[in-house]
Amino acid sequence: MATNEAGEILYEGKAKQVFATDDPQVLLHRYKDDATAYNAAKRGSWEGKGRTNAMMSAAIFKYLEEHGVPTHFISQEDETSITTKNLQMLPVEVVVRNVAAGSLSRLIGIEEGTPLSAPIVELCLKSDELGDPMLTHAHFRELGVPEDDLMFCEELGLRVNELLTSFFDEKGIILVDFKIEVGRDPGGELMLADEISPDTCRFWDKETGEKLDKDRFRRDMGGVEEAYAEMLRRVTG
Ligand code: UDP
Predict the structure, then answer these.
(1) In this predicted model, what pLDDT tens digit does every residue of 79-98 receive, in sequence order?
(2) Residue 135's Cα: distance from chain center in Å?
(3) C-alpha 223 to ligand 1 mean position (Å)
(4) Is the distance from the beta carbon of residue 103 to the nearest atom of ligand 1 less than 6 Å?
(5) Distance, CA 65 to ligand 1 centroid (Å)?
(6) Among 3.30.365.10, 3.30.1050.10, 3.30.70.260, 3.30.470.20, what is the CATH number of 88-223?
(7) Ligand 1 centroid, distance to 23 Cα (angstroms)
(8) Which CATH superfamily does the domain covering 9-85 fall into?
(9) Could you report the per-residue pLDDT of 34-45, keeping only the tens digit for each?
(10) What does the pLDDT average to over 167-186?
C-alpha cells in the first residue's frame, strides 16, 4: 500500500529504524538484527532478531487491542516491519515486575528468581545520558510530566501485565518483567507504544527455568538466536 512505503528516515538506533510514510500520522518501524546492552557498552547481532521482535510485537499488540488496551499498532508490513500511529512519546519507561531480577535484585537485595508478593511498577526517565534513572512522581513533576499521565502509565502497566501474564502462562512462559512506553495521539489519547519482545521482557520457561530473552546476550550465556526463535514459535504457534 502506498501509504505504508518507507519515506524519510526519522530515527536510527542499534535495534530499529523508524521511517516517515506518505501519511504524517503513520510511522514505519523496521527491526534490525543488531543489539546493544548496558547503555550501548556491549554490541552484538544475531539472525532472526528483527523478525522475532517485529512479529512478536505485532501479535501481542493485536492481542492487547482485542482485550481493550489502546496501542499504537496499525499493521504488520512484512516479517521485520510494522506500521504504527505517530505519537508524541512521554519521556517515561514503565517497568513492571512479577519476579525479582536484574536491577530490582541489585536495588533491594533480593535474590533473582524470588516471586514478588504483588507486581511492582517502576517509572524511569527515558534518558541515555542519565542512564534511565528511576524517578518519583515529584521528580517527574519537576520535569513537566503531569500526574495524570503517570497514573495512566501505572494503570496501563498493571493491565498489560495482567493480560500478558496469562497469555504467556498458556505458552509455558513466566513473564518475569517487562518495559513499555506510552505516547499521545493528536486527539490527546494516551496509548501503549514501542515494542514487546525478548529485548524488552524477561521470559523464563515455566518447566526448566531457562531464560528465553535478551539476558542470554547481556550475560554471554550463548543460545541467544535459538531463544528468540523459540519465543517467536511459542507466541505465533
Ligand atoms: N528494559 C528495557 N530497556 C531498558 C531497561 C530495561 O527493555 O532500557 C527491560 C528489561 O529487558 C527487563 C525489564 O525492563 O525486562 C527490567 O530491566 P532491569 O531494570 O532489571 O534492567 P537490567 O537488569 O537489564 O539493567
Answers:
(1) 999 999 999 999 999 999 99
(2) 19
(3) 20
(4) yes
(5) 24
(6) 3.30.470.20
(7) 33
(8) Phosphorylase Kinase; domain 1 (3.30.200.20)
(9) 999 998 999 999
(10) 98
